[in-house]
TrEMBL record:
GO molecular function, one term: precorrin-8X methylmutase activity
BP term (GO), one: cobalamin biosynthetic process
Protein family: Belongs to the CobH/CbiC family.
Keyword Isomerase among UniProt keywords: yes
Keywords on record: Cobalamin biosynthesis, Isomerase
Organism: Actinomadura rayongensis
Membrane spanning residue stretches: none
Protein name: Precorrin-8X methylmutase
KW Metal-binding (keyword) present: no
Cobalamin biosynthesis precorrin-8X methylmutase CobH/CbiC domain segment(s): 19-202
Pfam families per UniProt: CbiC
Pathway(s) per entry: Cofactor biosynthesis; adenosylcobalamin biosynthesis
Length: 208
């Protein structure tokens, strides 16, 4: 577990590696996302950049106002909460809270008869409270717990991967009314969830 930044902390403008610059040039030559609102485009392009999967251009589902809310929260120093360590590792510009490996999550799971992922969500919410940005790339159960516990997020990045429960959990997130970014298919994963968060952390423009 790592601590969130303090309110008002801002990430300095980054200098992308030449390989990243070339990657963006290639993806933009293959798919035109300019009709998208700026934040939606930034998130989708970064997901395509890390996956080399152009299908995300039509698979990502969000609303620009949801992303703007998440961006504002991050710029104000809101904590980021991740469902597992690989998401934490992938978010390069901001430390993230993650309780999945906390022994207390195991004890709570056994005592309450819930999954460890759900227990980690409960512990994280007890720590950060409302207004956080939540990133799920692995566990559909974590996403369902976020919905059920009414964590009052600034944004939920719900991009778990898998053939069992992932698409259904993302559909439930979209139906919940929570501010969110997700995708329709079974695709996703830790790198994808981290990419969506990084896209907002790296964004240096103004929301529409």
């Amino acid at each position: 577990m790592t601590a969130p930044t303090q309110p008002g902390d801002r990430v300095t403008v980054r200098q992308p590696h030449p390989i990243e610059v070339r990657s963006y040039e290639i993806l933009r030559s293959r798919v035109d996302l300019t009709p998208m609102p700026p934040l939606w485009r930034a998130v989708t392009e970064r997901i395509i950049h890390v996956t080399a999967d152009l299908e995300y251009a039509v698979d990502v589902v969000t609303r620009e106002e949801h992303l703007a809310r998440g961006l504002a929260a991050l710029r104000a120093g809101a904590p980021v909460v991740a469902d597992e360590g690989m998401v934490v590792a992938g978010i390069t510009a901001r430390p993230a809270v993650c309780h999945i490996a906390d022994p207390a999550a195991g004890r709570l799971a056994r005592a309450a008869g819930i999954s460890r992922e759900a227990a980690a969500v409960r512990l994280s919410y007890a720590e950060v409270g409302p207004g956080a940005v939540w990133a799920v790339g692995s566990a559909p159960g974590a996403l369902l717990e976020i919905i059920a516990r009414d964590v009052r997020p600034a944004l939920v990045v719900g991009l778990p991967v898998g053939f069992v429960g992932a698409a259904e959990a993302k559909e439930a997130l979209r139906a919940s009314g929570l501010p969110q970014v997700s995708n329709v298919s079974e695709k996703g994963g830790s790198a994808v969830a981290a990419a969506a968060v990084n896209a907002l952390l790296y964004y240096d423009g103004e929301a529409a």
